[in-house]
Specification:
Number of helices: 13
Oligomer: single chain
Shape: elongated
Structural class: alpha/beta
Number of strands: 12
Radius of gyration: 22 Å
Helix content: 40-55%
Order of helices and strands: EHEHEEEHEHEHHHEEHEHEHHEHH
Strand content: 15-25%
Distance between the termini: 33 Å
């Protein structure tokens, strides 16, 4: 995806701080530039050639803005209307609204990868597969769910999640994606029809057919992420990315953190080296910076025979190991 350029024009301290805030929250495909000397805006626009212009009132005249540039005004009016954004909000929320306006204006489908104040996104991945990927990520979701409203989404093929949680059959991620494609305006009904619950988190089962994971389109994921941010009350989404599919990579790029589970043996080290080499390439630098490697041990934090596996994931020795390793519950 080609990079999108966002310019922020304004000579106030607020405009400078907003520019810096959005730089920190910007996804990989967004560049943010600031113009504080509004007397040189025309020159600035010619030099930067932005796709989007966010400007304070009085900072830009209509003739200074090229026709192809989507322009959005910051306003003090709370009922801002189209192509105007209420300025007294958090920078992350302003950025989310900018993406929405740009999508509507340019007709481009974008994955809303900016982090909002009310939604954290975390992914788990294990290069080459790992038997602890499912229990570790489920335990993490349970621990987070004691303080926040959590949704767990599984992109892993044959993870064992359904039999572990006692789900013999039922709607899954395939049904949710199909529902999004057919009836976007009824997203909450589609989501409700595929949701399952535990004591601490809601979850969506992976597709029964792994091929469905590779047929999730970019626009499907874009709609899912956007709707989860705009229409639900979830504060955290935990993704189990069992394979490095295109969908899983998109999810990881959306996340503020990616926990990568590796084994402490020779083959685990080789897989880690291969993954690091892959992520160090220029186009994946931002993703590489998000990855944190974990080496959980089943033996030191194992499970009691005959006990409920789910309850041990939530509060047993294994859960304590998860909490110690992640350190951000």
């Amino acid at each position: 995806m080609a990079k999108i350029k966002l310019a922020v024009a304004g000579d106030s301290v607020y405009a400078a701080r907003l520019t810096e805030c959005m730089r920190k929250k910007a996804p990989d495909y967004l560049e943010v530039a600031g113009c504080q000397d509004v007397t040189k805006l025309t020159e600035f626009m010619l030099q930067v050639q932005p796709d989007l212009l966010l400007y304070e009132q009085g900072a830009a005249a209509q003739e200074q803005i090229p026709e192809a540039v989507v322009h959005i005004q910051l306003t003090a009016e709370q009922d801002a209307g189209q192509s105007r954004i209420f300025r007294y909000q958090k920078g992350s929320e302003i950025l989310r609204q900018i993406f929405r306006i740009y999508e509507q204006s340019s007709k481009k489908k974008l994955v809303c990868r900016c982090h909002t104040a009310d939604l954290e996104i975390t992914a788990f991945y294990a290069p080459g597969g790992h038997e602890l990927l499912l229990p570790f990520s489920l335990s993490y979701a349970s621990l987070c769910g004691k303080e926040k409203k959590v949704l767990y989404v599984n992109l892993s093929e044959f993870s064992g999640m359904a039999p572990l949680l006692g789900e013999k059959s039922g709607s899954n991620l395939s049904d949710l994606v199909y529902g999004i494609r057919q009836k976007k305006e009824q997203f909450l009904l589609c989501l409700q029809s595929v949701l399952h619950q535990t004591e601490y988190f809601d979850y969506v089962l992976p597709p029964e057919n792994p091929q469905d994971l590779y047929e999730v389109r970019e626009e499907d994921l874009a709609c899912l992420l956007t709707q989860l941010q705009e229409q639900t009350e979830y504060q955290k989404i935990v993704w189990n990315c069992g394979s490095f599919s295109q969908s899983a990579q998109q999810v990881m790029e959306c996340c503020s953190k990616v926990f990568c589970i590796v084994k402490e043996n020779a083959f685990g080290k080789y897989r880690k080296l291969e993954l690091e080499e892959f992520l160090r390439k220029e186009t994946r630098q931002r993703l590489w910076e998000k990855v944190q490697y974990l080496c959980p041990q089943a033996a030191s934090g194992g499970f009691v025979q005959g006990g409920s596996v789910l309850s041990q994931l939530q509060s047993g020795d294994f859960a304590r190991q998860v909490q110690e390793l992640t350190q951000d519950i």
